[in-house]
Amino acid sequence: xxxxxxxxxxxxxxxxxxxxxxxxxxxxxxxxxxxxxxxxxxxxxxxxxxxxxxxxxxxxxxxxxxxxxxxx
Length: 72
Prior knowledge:
The chain is of the alpha+beta class. Helix content is about 45%, strand content about 15%. It has helices at about 20-25, 40-50, 55-70, and strands spanning about 1-5, 5, 30, 35. It has a two-stranded antiparallel ribbon. Strand 1 (about 1-5) and strand 2 form a beta hairpin. The longest helix is centred in the C-terminal third of the chain and has 16 residues, at about 55-70. It starts with a strand and ends with a helix.
């Protein structure tokens, strides 16, 4: 489901070969304004498994962000 700039995928377990451990996703979630979100590191893994052109562009953006913030 896509609305505005956010995308929600309730069937995340069905994308590519990415099969996350839900308990690990929850325990490693970043909390932003009180809302748990999948970490950027995990997002990179997810997008790499999807392998779409837009995902590889997103991965580069995320990696650059992590480098500039010192979190890489």
